[in-house]
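Re: beginner question about structure tokens

> Can someone show what the tokenized structure looks like for a real chain? I only ever see the sequence side.

Sure, here's an example I had lying around. Input first:
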Amino acid sequence: MDTILLLVQKMPMGIFAFLFLIGFFLLYFILYFYINKNLNQICIIVFNDKNRYKSPLELFDFIYISFIPTTFWKELLSLKNFFKFKKLYQKDFFMKMDEKNLKRLLNEFPFFFALQYSAFICGILFMCLITGSYYFEI
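And the corresponding structure tokens:
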């Protein structure tokens, strides 16, 4: 216990960065099981094909599906009326999705978006804190 307190005193940014890294991996672990549990419904909405992917997902298939919320962040902000953007749904390099499918996905699986955005924020905070602790030696 004294060792942990000493680490917190000597390098608090590094400890918090490590906690965000643990949170990042924990959230992605939960997201993997959540996507596998709802894979058929997600595939019906996104790909119009129930049998496109099979559970359990391979790593790269999971990463591909899990990036849907972060790829369409502008469209989601526009749907929620936070911001207005001129060009929306121009993601031909990733996948084609229209407003109806995105709304349906958001309404039926809000936890999918919350998990992905939380993991994304934990990853960014980890990188910022670990960089800050290196440069400021805190």
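Each token stands for a local structural state, so reading them left to right follows the chain. The chain has a mean pLDDT of 85.
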